[in-house]
Amino acid sequence: MLEQILDLVKQQGQQSVVQNTEVPNERNNEVMMEAASTITGGLQNMLSGGGLQNIISMFSGDQSQGRNGILGNPITSMMVGHLANNLMKKMNLSPAVANTVANNIIPGVLNSLVSNTRSNDPANAGFNLNNLIGELTGGSKAAPQTNGIDLQGLIGQLGADTNGDGKVDLSDIAGAISRQSQTQQQAQRQGGGGIADLIQGFFK
After folding, report:
1. What are the pLDDT digits (tens) for 93-133?
2. Structural domain boundaries enclosing 152
3. SS3 (DSSP) at 155
4. Distance of CA 55 to CAs 108, 143, 187, Å?
5. Cβ neighbours of residue 128 closer than 8 Å, sequence gap 6 or more
6. N or C of the chain: less Cβ packing under 10 Å?
7. This protein's superkingdom (predicted)?
């Protein structure tokens, strides 16, 4: 599913980056690579920090507000701020341009990611929360690290908050996934490869 995320970054980047005259053409791929890294890294950091409930809440929440609803999500705000800061520091984009790019591309990608994952359209079959969690935590599409829980199947159920307590109680699996994600991140830091290589190869 990581490739689907990178595809969404490319799609959103056409208008937000490639057609943006304030982003130098020679920087287009670097900006999109940074956006992809921010999104995948942000989700991975959430998992390693025990934030599975927040991610599931993002996928299972009220979709009637669409992109505006995504904008109000703290995960989105974190990613937007991180990307804007990196675009200024690494690529010398002005604060105004960096913030405009970040505020366009991050919510756009996340909104499409959530919508496609929740869709029953066969064309969106590649979008699957089980696969996403598995790939982010070092598992595989065939055997994601979700302790046998069908997260994709939970999406529709969790949005209703059936017990009315305002939260999704998945603390046990969240802890397991957090530990797996930390192990995966440590392995990537020590040996390279993984998601970073996938992102770099995708935008060449």
Report:
1. 999 999 999 999 999 999 999 889 888 888 888 888 888 87
2. 2-202
3. helix
4. 16, 20, 23
5. 1, 117, 152
6. C
7. Bacteria
